[in-house]
Amino acid sequence: MTLVPQIDGERLLGRLDAFARIGETPAGGVNRQAFSVEDRSARRLLAELALARGFSVFQDGMANLFIRREGSDATLPPLLIGSHLDSQPTGGRFDGALGTLSAFEALEALEDAQAETHMPIEVVAWVNEEGSRFAPGVMGSMAFTGADTEAWKSLVGSDGACLAGELEATIAALPEAAPRPVGMPISGYIELHIEQGPSLEKEQLPIGVVTAVQGTRWLEVSIQGSAGHAGTTGLAYRRDPMVAAAAAMHALQATIMPLDTSARLTVGRIAAQPGSINAIPQSVTFTVDLRHPQPERLDAIEAEVRRVCGAEAKAQDCTVTIRRSFDMPGAAFSPAMISIVEAAVGSLHLPHKRMVSGAFHDALFIARVAPAAMIFVPCRDGLSHNEAEYVEPADAVTGARVLLQAAIAAASAH
Ligand SMILES: [Zn+2]
Known about the structure:
By secondary structure, the chain is α/β, with parallel strands linked by helices. The chain has helices at residues 9-20, 37-52, 97-112, 139-144, 163-172, 199-202, 241-259, 295-315, 335-347, 362-366, 393-412, and strands spanning 56-60, 65-69, 79-84, 121-126, 178-180, 188-194, 207-213, 215-224, 228-229, 264-266, 270-273, 279-280, 283-292, 319-328, 331-332, 352-357, 372-377. The longest helix has 21 residues, at 295-315. The chain is elongated.
């Protein structure tokens, strides 16, 4: 008799509690930053649980952690499922941990049922997803997909620690994990994560099928005018960059997002020089954070920002320079992997919607080397990177059930 693999909800919730105690904060959150003592404890606990179940444990030179259950065809590259175990300094119990522990629960469910998969399945805990102690974040998945890691060796963390030493100590703290080079062929990747936004909860949907991670681009707009006396300079003589900046911001807010519901435009910082209460500024600088899932739309929106700022500057007889300070392309997930996840959701008769991730995830990088997809579950009030982060137990278990079904299907594909 073959058993059907089933998520053990109690076991999963118990594990979430156990890991939440590693680095727990008085306010009920978690401080388990990358390469810290707490991070090492969480990695150790996961490795011990894995070894106790007879799974193999590996870590690569970047300290990404892998737990492997063999498939019937050992020549096939593994299907990866997982997320991350590190947290923000005042992080929550579910960001990363839910995806990693649900993936491990899926592996245990397969083992409980003695179910055979075609491909090997590996649970992965990517290292330093958060980037709060050592920037940049998503370091583990970037390294795994071929990023140049040389410059990171000299990084000094927010607490003064050196990355090279902390990485070495983290790897050394887990001698049971067999060493493995960074990067390898994989068949696919599925990541379960909390939404970190309010839409699923607001729409009362237990599952979001993530089709893409949006791209992010930062611009620094600097408008140059002419400083002048606030009292003596009449309207006809003003070259006021603040007027131009305000008009440009107003025009952009009135068009970009209202005309394209996938677009995000945020002005988060503004500075005037010299910044005096009774002087027309010489210059005004403001930042623009642009996001869109489609790269060509991001290009078009940037062009529109440049056009509008140019026109409004000219209208005030000012000049403008615009500098791009950050550009992170988004990723569209594999249609085949999205279909697998959607079929899993369908087989469990769960209401769901397709959605784009507003935040970065390791899957953004893994999607460049293998078919990838993500599953979102709701979190209370959309809160994340916050000690009050909360996921309903039933939603956590539902997410794990979808992950298990999707992993079985993906690991059986030929
Ligand atoms: Zn996360």
